[in-house]
Specification:
The complex is a heterotrimer. Chain A is built from 18 helices and 24 strands. Chain A is of the alpha/beta class. Chain A has 3 domains: 171 residues, 3-Layer(aba) Sandwich (Rossmann fold); 73 residues, no CATH class; 189 residues, P-loop containing nucleotide triphosphate hydrolases (Rossmann fold, 3-Layer(aba) Sandwich). In chain A, the strands form 6 sheets. In chain A, strands 6-9-10-3-11-12 form a 6-stranded mixed beta sheet, sandwiched between helices. Chain B is mainly alpha-helical. Chain C is mainly α. The longest helix of chain C is centred in the middle third of the chain and has 30 residues. Classes of the chains: A alpha/beta, B mainly alpha, C mainly alpha. At the B-C interface, α5, α10 and α12 of B face α6, α12 and α14 of C.
Chain lengths: 521, 295, 346
């Protein structure tokens, strides 16, 4: 299926036809067609796991396609021989989601890597640095060529990635989830840069799942789902709803059914909590939060504004530099992680694979991970009790495959998350649930189930602190909401305000830091 | 005690120092370049040993020390090739493979020693440095190599790519740098240089003695860590470690009651202390030890 | 998929291929020496398994390998690499010999033997705890630290021996008291002793600990995913130290064989190479107790056989064979893992 013809007949600079690629049993791309026009912004959208990254990495030559054809600027690229070197030679550059920068090297060293200019036998970095400064000026991408990359902020590093691609002489830019780690201000800056590039005839391919950005920027839109192209849309006239509809085939604004909350006493009281982040800089600045029994408090905000540190301080993985965490009247300062679980903590971490489960453990072992003392008889694991627990949870949550000895690493994201939630929600002493990104990487069917379980837990009297990057999820699940920006609470909203029409806009504004420093009552 | 200082700072002592340190420096340079590209190098001991053996055999058979040295380099490269085969081509665990190669070198050199010369302890006398320790090419080559490696890493295209591959191989790959190609080159160079170190041992001793590397490969590895994977500091660390042995000799003369074993253990203790971060945090290349998979 | 037949087959296949490669390499060396591989391998097998004496000696040689294999495997399962068995078994054996010779002659065997064994384990464990603590609290990698400690321990033991404990003009300690001796199993005059039974018991304990105990569960979690373990409230640091200590203790128990059961004193150069072989045994045995015992028997066979074939080819052939086996198994392990990863689910 070819792209819709727009008024200005732009020539195609990338043409993919019938491209397929599988990883073992997982079909990442299934006979995909895609055409990118010169001087346009082409958005490739879809949920996590739709195959967008894989597809563009194939176009870039980083992943080998199993079948199909690739044509760049009219030149046929045999799929077995396509490499990033060839792609760059033809002017295709890629900025990956996880930056491909070498942290201890300088900006200019990173930029020239692979195409180093030489003066005789020696690297000629001075000339390259001068060229970088010129490019910086031209496109508004300010970077210092001699800076060491690991000292740069995320936004600056992204600029380095873009300048790298431009220095290589590319006029087709592929950006993989470029705004995932940017503040709203940086997103605007990026879009200005992109518009400037497009005006010069550069083609930009943007892989994203953020629909509002697509609407703001894209000329052409390709929608992917489960490895296939399901629709191609014209950027003009597209709306978030129309794209979402194409993505999932039905309205994506899931409205979860829930009764109004009936909150009881305060369970979690976080007072003036301060903490340093991974880099040693302050990440939490005197944050105060209260969650009562039987209510869900949502935490909104762009990733990197203190959410992780807040979770870690409550769970016990990070020591705060000031303030207190009090649960059910007990100050948890100095308490070990294990002791906190025993005192009423339940935790669904955001990084499932790294933190929530052991991929090489079976379902039944993962179900008792962190609760293994409950299932012990003396120094030994109580195998009968473990088996009984596994049987019960598998049935209750419909975990598939149902064999308790199945290795977690072979299961789908949704089923893995079911294990985690089953384990955490069934702790005997539960009082407070810290739940982060519960539906990330989970397919739609499991999402509804997980939402229901969280609501049910709330109704049973649990206090829930919910962190999520999906505003829709937060709005539909939360009873109250706060927005974190720069380590501070930028906004507080109660249930009434959340239900109002302009709530989303208010939240969005708070996420940009526009209201930072002033707490709304 | 002033006598001690007098001895320590004499030119003679310094010369002795370099002479003792040379095999360490050569092996450590090999280790440095290998590890900077992300490949662990526990097999330095084996490379030294094989280099020494090949040098001795080459020198004995042809009567020429120079040929011996070249054989030493080739022998070391052969070991490097075997290591590369296991670790780069097949992705075998780098530490296990390194240990295996060290054991292999130990057994094989003694086996062949018996086969060629009928003894499992010594080879017949081989041409070596003789009296020309300070005036032969190798001596200056060692010093030159230290500077060459330092310069090469920082200012050449190969060096930049090597450093990149050692820290973030995926980044290199997206830019078309062949991660495996660079690592193969690094492993072979490491083998050659370490083999030369072994040749030095054989030439200095003017014979091959079973197990003559005597743990130097491990001290060289310690020096790589102490020197924070930077050639000039690594060379300094080697000098430091070599001085431990020389220092011991001086102290025994002066009847200072420091146990010989303590001085011998100094390099190892120092390394442990350095690694624990008590002498500044030295950071290993980020991709060290992790095998690389092409997508 | 549960760990199924597919994986088991590939692993056995990998080991078999490695053994064949080693045999081939060995054959080349034998031929170069002018002997017949069939003859040499034949002598090897016959002398090691052909009669009771041979079997006894082979099992004797295998005993320390079971200990060091279990030691390395325990550390592996916790995600750690213990290359320090050489040093740990040295201090364990040394301590064991000292305790054994320092006890009064009248000490009953029921007290003397366990005490000596305990001391062996404690000494090895103490040495193992050092790199464990360094790794847990400073992040300093245990591979280098254990290698360094091997040398330091060796130097320290020699110094202490020469200075205080060795018998005049010798490099061995005084004999242990007779009630501390582990009696021989009386197999056709071989030196096989009750430490072999101890080793098998340790293998059983290893299994119970790793697979059935709560602490073993925690160690395995730490080994497979330290972040998940930490998140689950498991004290990762303590687990690392515990694992390295237990690992060191297991290596220290080698003293029970050499000192209590065989030589009845500690001697310089005791057990040299056993630590490195432990790595091979753990690798070949896939870090599980039954595999380790089998692998230990294999390497014990080679070790004993080496002495027997010394008439035909230098016994260094055995060292070469052992090294080739380790290298080949490392390679086949990697290639089978790659094959499994490609074929399995994403």
């Amino acid at each position: 299926m070819t792209a819709p013809v727009s008024e200005l007949q732009s020539e195609a600079c990338i043409e993919l036809k019938g491209v397929s690629r599988s990883f073992g049993k997982n079909v990442a791309n299934d006979k995909v067609d895609l055409v990118v026009r010169k001087g346009s912004v082409h958005a490739v959208v879809g949920e996590n796991g739709a195959g967008k990254s894989t597809l563009m990495k194939i176009a870039y030559g980083q992943i080998r396609a199993d079948e199909g054809s690739i044509r760049i600027k009219g030149r046929d690229m045999p799929i077995a021989k396509h490499t990033p070197m060839k792609a760059i030679d033809l002017g295709v550059g890629m900025v990956h989601q996880h930056f491909m920068l070498v942290p201890p090297l300088s900006v200019v060293e990173n930029v020239v890597l692979g195409r180093e200019p030489l003066k005789g036998m020696v690297l000629d970095l001075e000339t390259a640095a001068a060229e970088l400064r010129a490019l910086s000026e031209k496109y508004g991408l300010h970077v210092d060529p001699s800076a060491i990359v690991e000292t740069l902020s995320v936004g600056e590093q992204q600029r380095v990635e873009i300048i790298k691609v431009l220095w290589q002489g590319c006029d087709i830019l592929i950006l993989d989830e470029p705004t995932a780690v940017l503040t709203p201000l940086e997103v605007d800056q990026l879009f200005d840069v992109l518009r400037g590039l497009v005006a010069e005839g550069v083609a930009v391919v943007m892989i994203t799942h953020k629909l509002d950005e697509v609407v703001a920027l894209a000329d052409d839109i390709t929608v992917m789902r489960r490895g296939k192209v399901v629709d191609t849309l014209d950027g003009k006239g597209a709306s978030v709803e129309s794209i979402a509809h194409a993505m999932v085939g039905r309205s994506v604004l899931l409205q979860v059914e829930k009764e109004p909350a009936n909150p009881g006493d305060a369970v979690l009281v976080v007072k003036e909590l301060s903490a340093l982040g991974q880099t040693g800089l302050p990440a939490l600045k005197r944050v105060s939060v209260t969650v009562r029994a039987g209510e869900i408090l949502g935490v909104a905000g762009v990733e990197g504004n203190g959410q992780s540190e807040l979770q870690e301080c409550i769970v016990g993985l990070r020591k705060p530099t000031g303030g207190s965490v009090v649960v059910q009247g007990n100050n948890w300062a100095g308490k070990s992680v294990a002791a906190r679980y025993a005192s009423g903590l339940a935790h669904v971490p955001e990084d499932r694979h790294a933190r929530a489960i052991v991929l090489d453990f079976s379902i039944e072992d993962n179900l008792i991970l962190g609760r293994h003392r409950e299932f012990s008889k003396g120094p030994f694991i109580d195998r009968a009790a473990r088996a009984a627990e596994a049987a019960a949870r598998i049935k209750e949550a419909d975990i598939r495959p149902a064999d308790p000895e199945t290795l977690a690493g072979t299961m789908s994201g949704g089923n893995q998350q079911k294990i985690v939630i089953a384990r955490e929600l069934n702790r005997p002493a539960n009082a407070i649930l810290i739940c982060a990104q519960p539906t990330r990487g989970v397919d739609i069917g499991a999402i509804e189930l997980i939402h229901k379980q969280v609501i049910a837990a709330r109704d049973a009297g649990l206090a829930v602190l919910l962190f999520s990057a999906e505003l829709a999820e937060l709005q539909s699940l939360s009873d109250n909401l706060i927005v974190l920006y720069g380590g501070e609470v930028a906004l507080r909203m109660d249930a009434k305000e959340l239900a109002e029409d302009g709530a989303r806009a208010k939240i969005g504004v708070a996420m940009t830091g526009a209201t930072a420093g002033q707490e709304t009552a | 005690m002033s006598d001690v200082f007098g001895v320590v700072f004499s030119v003679y002592f310094l010369g002795q120092l370099v002479r003792t340190a040379a095999p360490y420096i050569l092996a450590a340079l090999g280790g440095t370049i290998s590890e900077r590209s992300g490949v662990v190098n526990i097999a330095l001991e084996g490379k030294l040993l094989v280099g020494a053996f090949c040098c001795a055999v080459g020198a004995i058979e042809t009567g020429s020390a120079t040929v011996g040295a070249i054989c030493g380099i080739l022998g070391g490269m052969a070991v490097g090739w075997l290591y590369g085969l296991a670790v780069l081509r097949f992705g075998a665990d780098q530490i296990v493979s390194g240990v295996a190669i060290n054991l292999l070198a130990l057994g094989l050199t003694r086996y062949l020693l018996k086969l060629f010369y009928g003894s499992t302890a010594n080879s017949p006398p081989a041409p070596g440095f003789g009296d020309r320790v300070w005036t032969n090419v190798l001596f200056y080559a060692v010093i030159a190599l230290v500077f060459a490696f330092q310069f090469g890493l920082q200012r050449t295209r190969f060096g930049l790519r090597l450093r990149a591959v050692g820290e973030h191989p995926e980044a290199g790959e997206t830019l078309g740098v062949s991660v495996l190609g660079i690592r193969w080159a690094a492993v072979l160079i490491a083998g050659g240089v370490a083999g030369l170190g072994g040749a030095w041992l054989a030439l200095d001793n003017e014979a091959f003695v079973a197990n003559m590397s005597g743990g130097r490969g491990y001290i060289a590895l310690a020096a790589v860590i102490m020197g924070a994977w930077r050639p000039k500091y690594v060379a300094l660390a080697c000098l430091l470690f070599a001085s431990a042995g020389a220092l011991q000799g001086v102290l025994q003369v002066e009847d200072v009651p420091v146990p010989r074993e303590l001085i011998q253990s100094l390099p190892y203790i120092l390394t442990m202390v350095a690694m624990a971060g008590l002498i500044g945090r030295s950071r290993a290349p980020a991709s060290l030890g992790k095998p690389h998979e092409r997508s | 998929m549960r760990k199924g037949g597919n994986e088991l087959f590939l692993q056995v296949y990998g080991v078999a291929v490695a053994l064949l490669v080693a045999m081939a390499a060995g054959s080349v060396l034998i031929l170069v020496f002018g002997q017949s591989p069939a003859n040499v391998y034949g002598v090897l097998l016959v002398e090691t398994w052909g009669d009771s004496h041979g079997i006894g000696q082979t099992l004797l040689k295998s005993t320390p390998l079971i200990f060091t294999g279990l030691s390395v495997a325990l550390a592996f399962r916790a995600g750690l690499f213990n290359i320090g068995c050489e040093g740990q078994l040295l201090v364990g054996s040394f301590a064991c010999a000292l305790m054994g010779s320092a006890l009064p002659e009248s000490t009953p065997a029921l007290l003397a033997v366990p005490l000596a064994i305990l001391v062996a384990g404690m000494a090895g464990g103490a040495l193992g705890a050092i790199p464990g603590a360094l790794r847990a609290y400073t992040g300093s990698h245990e591979v280098i630290n254990t290698i360094m400690l091997n040398f330091i321990a060796s130097a320290a033991v020699l110094w202490a021996g020469n200075r205080f404990f060795f018998v005049e003009e010798t490099t061995h300690t005084a004999d242990i008291i007779s009630s501390a001796e582990l009696p021989s199993l009386g197999i056709a005059g071989s030196a096989l002793n009750w430490s072999f039974v101890l080793a098998l018991a340790c293998a059983g304990l290893f299994w119970v600990f790793m697979d059935r105990s709560r602490r073993g569960f925690e160690l395995r979690a730490v080994g497979l995913s330290p972040l998940a373990a930490e998140n689950a409230g498991i004290d990762v640091r303590r687990s690392i130290v515990v694992a390295m200590t237990l690992s060191g203790a297991m290596a220290g128990l080698v003293g029970a064989n050499f000192v209590l059961g065989y030589k009845h004193y500690f001697e310089e150069g005791l057990g040299s190479g056993t630590g490195f072989m432990g790595i091979a045994v753990a690798l070949l045995g896939r870090n599980n107790p039954i595999g380790i015992v089998v692998a230990a028997l294999l390497f014990g066979t080679l070790s004993n056989g080496g002495l027997e074939v010394n008439g035909f080819v230098p016994k260094e052939l055995i060292e070469v064979l052992q090294a080739v086996i380790i290298l080949a198994v490392a390679i086949t392990t990697a290639t089978t893992q790659r094959a499994l990863a490609k074929g399995g689910a994403s």
